[in-house]
Specification:
The protein is mainly beta. Helix content is 11%, strand content 43%. It contains 2 helices and 11 strands; from the N terminus they run ββββββαβββββα.
């Protein structure tokens, strides 16, 4: 496992995988793309976490990514969200409680959303899991804000050669 595996998360931003292009290792949103910030439960008993398991060797095996979080109430809105988005392929930007950020999943190796709900007795919540596998570990990024999802500025064809050694 990597040093960030199992860390508690403070924020999760979900993006439909087809709406992101990777350019020079940076996630760039396609025009008009919408993202979703997940409101996390604040109770210590239900922390949001990120786990990454590395393959036992480098013989073409995949890393396994798992992001788990609990929604404090199982509501009609939660049910509708799950019904609408359960088959969507996702990329997630996650931020740990300590401020470290990672890009998890790619367009070619997306995350899928799964859920389990507990209603009755003392429980009324939904545990949601984004999980997937890919050939590389999660990518460290500076932030999960919009600045992480756009280029450095307007495209300048005169600068292209300097940046990319054409």
């Amino acid at each position: 496992m990597n040093d960030y595996a199992g860390r508690r998360l403070s924020r999760i931003r979900m993006i439909p995988a087809p709406l992101v292009e990777m350019i020079d290792g940076r996630p760039i949103l396609k025009p008009g793309a919408q993202t979703l910030f997940v409101q996390l439960a604040t109770a210590d008993t239900t922390p949001a976490t990120y786990q990454e398991e590395s393959p036992p060797d480098s013989a073409g095996q995949l890393y396994t990514w798992t992001i788990s979080f609990t929604q404090p109430r199982y509501t009609a809105e939660t049910r509708d969200f799950l019904r609408r988005f359960a088959r969507v392929k996702w990329i997630a930007l996650v931020e740990s409680v300590g401020g470290s950020c990672w890009l998890v999943g790619t367009k070619d190796f997306p995350l899928m959303l799964r859920s389990s709900s507990a209603v009755g007795g003392n429980k009324n919540n939904s545990t949601l899991t984004l999980s997937g596998q890919g050939p590389r570990p999660a990518v460290s990024i500076d932030t999960i804000e919009d600045t992480a999802l756009s280029g450095s500025g307007p495209f300048d064809p005169n600068d292209f050669q300097n940046n990319f050694d054409v």
